[in-house]
Automatic annotation (TrEMBL):
It catalyses: (3E,5Z)-octadienoyl-CoA = (2E,4E)-octadienoyl-CoA; (3E,5Z,8Z,11Z,14Z)-eicosapentaenoyl-CoA = (2E,4E,8Z,11Z,14Z)-eicosapentaenoyl-CoA. GO terms for biological process: fatty acid beta-oxidation. Pathway: Lipid metabolism; fatty acid beta-oxidation. Pfam families: ECH_1. GO terms for cellular component: mitochondrion; peroxisome. It comes from the Eukaryota. Isomerization of 3-trans,5-cis-dienoyl-CoA to 2-trans,4-trans-dienoyl-CoA. This is Delta(3,5)-Delta(2,4)-dienoyl-CoA isomerase, mitochondrial. It comes from Elysia chlorotica.
């Protein structure tokens, strides 16, 4: 019985290795070409005013915040387009990993203080309870702009250079992995503009850094913190010397993840997010139910066969 299984696994592995050799050579070629020129051609199937989407390598999408003249400040178009973009990436079978970066001088300067869209919603009524009803509908929509990153089952790598302010912290706290450049700095700035952060920082940031006292210090004082501190508290996992190096490292990692089973990677993200918000027994139960189905995936067989044949597996689109 085992020798039969071994033969089928070997045959499967041989088929997989042939197509892998082809695709890995192509992937290496595109890695070299794309690392420095990630912002070159935009992906025409993604058309937005405030975001540019590129396809720098197989199964990798690069979303670039694209209002450099305003330091990528978040205007009303941006809040809407983030949901549209990440909902589309979630469904795109040619996307297995996303890199999120900012164009121009800074990653983002946070909420667009010159865009009166938000103030129009607040001022739309005289009566405070009517305003409150409107805001009660509007705020969850703003929150969805970053929850869409977390709901997208593809891992999202945030690549931050220079300033990452206010809404920028909310945004990257919803990402899976965070890299930054040596010159990066961060600021939970909301109290300075008179508001309690309400699009994810207060919920996600403390869970990432696991330090309640430090979280409160950064939230209440709005003091800047720099790349070395961001690394030491675990907010970013890598600090790279400059933006070129950071984008190359992000692309290398994205390509590594993209070559793995999308069933396994996306299942892992879904289970990590679920487990963060539930008890260990609840998380284990959810994980068990998930794998009742997912362990039957052809990807499990392909991965085992590749291991036995000392080849690299090639996984079907998901
Ligand atoms: C319900 C919504 C939930 C969301 C909440 C989010 C809240 C927040 O994000 S609070 C934080 C808001 N952001 C800020 O307070 C940052 C404001 N900007 C700055 O302090 C500086 O611009 C900065 C230190 C980032 C950079 O300074 P630098 O001298 O290098 O550049 P500037 O000349 O200031 O900026 C270049 C042009 O960009 C415009 N700009 C910068 N930030 C914003 C912004 N947040 N909103 C709108 N516009 C921004 C700036 O005015 C300059 O434009 P121009 O003068 O026409 O050249």
């Amino acid at each position: 019985m085992f020798s039969g299984l071994r033969t089928s696994l070997r045959l499967l592995g041989q088929q997989a290795s042939k197509s892998f050799l082809k695709s890995s050579t192509e992937q290496n070629k595109s890695l070299v070409l794309c690392a420095r020129a990630m912002s070159a051609a935009a992906d025409k199937s993604y058309e937005f005013k405030t975001l540019k989407v590129h396809s720098p390598a197989e199964f990798v999408k690069h979303v670039e915040l694209n209002r450099p003249e305003r330091l990528n400040a978040m205007n009303m178009d941006f809040w809407r387009e983030m949901v549209e973009c990440f909902d589309k990436l979630a469904e795109d079978e040619d996307c297995r990993v996303v890199i999120l970066s900012g164009s121009g001088k800074a990653f983002t300067s946070g909420l667009d203080l010159a865009d009166n869209g938000l103030f129009q919603i607040i001022m739309a009524d005289e009566d405070c309870s009517r305003k409150a009803f409107k805001m009660n509908k509007a705020i969850p929509k703003f929150q969805e702009s970053f929850s869409a990153i977390e709901k997208c089952p593809k891992p999202v790598i945030a690549a931050v250079h220079s300033a990452c302010i206010g809404g920028g912290i909310d945004m990257i706290s919803a990402c899976d992995i965070r890299f930054c450049t040596q010159d990066a700095w961060f600021q939970i700035k909301e109290v300075d503009v008179g508001l309690a952060a309400d699009v994810g920082t207060l919920q996600r940031f403390p869970r990432i850094v696991g330090n309640d006292s430090l979280t409160r210090e950064l939230v209440y004082t709005a003091r800047k913190f720099y790349s070395d501190e961001a690394k030491s508290i675990g907010f970013v996992s890598r600090v790279l010397v400059d933006k070129d190096q950071m984008m190359k490292t992000a692309l290398d990692m994205a390509s590594t993840i993209a070559a793995k089973s999308p069933v396994a990677v996306q299942g892992s993200k879904i289970n990590l997010v679920y487990s963060r918000d539930h008890s260990v027994p609840e998380g284990l139960d959810y994980n068990a139910k998930w794998n009742i189905t997912m362990l039957q995936s052809e990807d499990v067989m392909k991965a085992a066969s590749a291991f036995m044949n000392k080849t690299k597996p090639v996984f079907s689109k998901l």
